[in-house]
Every structure is written in C-alpha cells, then in structure tokens.
Amino acid sequence: MKVLVTGGAGFIGSHTVDKLIEEGNDVIVIDNLSTGNISNVNYKAVFYNEDIRDEALNNIFESERPEYVIHLASQSDPLKSIEFPLYDSQININGTINLLECCVRNDVKKIVFASSISIYGNPKKLPICETDEKNPITQYGLSKLTAENYIKLYSKLYGLQYTILRYANVYGEREQQRDYTGAIPIFIKKLLQKDVPKIFNDGNETRDYIYVKDVVEANILSILMGNNEEINIGSGRQLKTMELYSIITHMIGVKAETVFDNSTMYKIQHIILNINKARRLLGWEPKHSIVDGLINTIGYYKMYLNM
C-alpha cells in the first residue's frame, strides 16, 4: 500500500510511520515541523515539509498518488485552543477541508482520521459509546467534531471512504511535553529532574489512558477495516490522576510531595470509553497495561534527558 501520513513527524504519527514501513508499505510524510521533529521521521519515508493548509498540498498528492491517507496533523492542545481559537480552527477545520479536497481530486481510496474524546465534553454516563451526546467544552473539541462532520459530508458527496478514530488520552515515547496538558510526560519529566509537578484540581478526576503503540495498531487496521464508522480507541479503564501519580513515583523510585492547582479552565471530571465497537469492527484490543506502557515511556525520558 501507498499511505500518506499527515503529522508524520509528530508523536503518534512517527510511530504510525515506523509500523507502516516495518510492514512493507510505501509511506509519504507531510509535516510542517511546528510541533513535530525531523529526527522522528523514518529514513525510509518520503518527507515533505509542508502545511496541510497550503494550496501546494495538492502538488504532493499529484506527484505521489497515495492510495490511503492517515490524518494525524492537528492543533491538539485543548488549552491552546481556548487562547487561540482562530489558529485552532485554521488547522483542524480548514486544514482538514484542504486535505479532503486533495483526496477527492486525486482518487484517494480512504482517509483515517484522528479525532478525540474531547468531542464528548463532560459525559452524562460512562463508559462513553460512539452514539452518545457530543457536547465539547473547548474549541479543540468543537474543531475535531466539525472536522468529523466534514469528512462524513465528503463521503456522502464524493464516495470517499473514512474511519474516524476517537482517541482517549494517548501516552508514550516521543510525546511532546506541554506546560498544562499531558499528565504523564509532565509527571515523568518533572520527577526525573527532582522537581515537583502540579496536580490540577483535586487529583480525583479519572482518565482513560492508552499506550501509543496500541493506537498505532488501530490506525493501521482502520486502513482496510471499519469503513465509514466512528470508533472509540482507549483502554476501557479509568485511572485517577492521584493513582497515576502514585504509580509513576513508585516506578521512578522517588517520594515527592503533592501540590494541587485549581487554576485550569479545562475541567472534565471523568472519562472512560466503551471500546466494544473497536473489538467488533477492527478486531482490536489494547495489548499494553498502564505499567507496561509506563516502563517504556519512563525509559524513553531517561534516555531523552541523558539520565
């Protein structure tokens, strides 16, 4: 297969590219390196330093003629979307529309889209099923939901097949650490550096954490399966923030104090995804426990920080 991966220099994208190449596929990577890193890009991939919003994107499609697209490029920080909503929409909505136009013009067979649990907002019941109410509480969640709707519209109008994957909280090697989102990289990096990370709110919020290599497997399975479906991708398990913090401190071997911070605007109490549809349509099941994934992730950050 010939697969084009947007955001292929980023966290999830670079792991996806590695696996596609390992399985013998031809891979084209498009990334503007705003958050991705060229060192993440597999040397066997064809790389273009390009923005998905640019008109020049179609030239790449005309030249490379990909059969399938995995669309991972996005503005993915919920808090940044609150501060810079126009920037968020330009990438997540306008960029997706530009990509869809390229797909239709160049006879792409299917697009796999990385959506997010953020489209659900604060759920009324748990675990969340794909058909449950979508009520995003950030511009990021709204832009992802809007992109989903554009993808479904293009499928109806032009016959472009799709699979929409709604990721839970993805973690693992190569994840970019941000100041306020992404508890796992923040906790690990701060603790390794003998610093004290802040725990937002009271630490009793729960999240559904899924290891990046499990997400990669779902991405690749979706190329040929799950046509025209929206599918949750998570662990199907809840973990409190304080429990996560305790696990990481134990694994690193430190005793750290606890500092709470109630300043964040982004407050979702509990999240857990129902992943039965992924099991049924993709034959997918997460293979890594939280401990397995954290062992690999901590090892990566120790190497990254030269520790």
Automatic annotation (TrEMBL):
Domain of life according to the entry: Bacteria
InterPro entries named in the record: Epimerase_deHydtase, Lipid_A_modif_metabolic_enz, NAD(P)-bd_dom_sf
Ranges of residues in domain NAD-dependent epimerase/dehydratase: 3-234
Protein name: UDP-glucose 4-epimerase
Gene source species: Serpentinicella alkaliphila
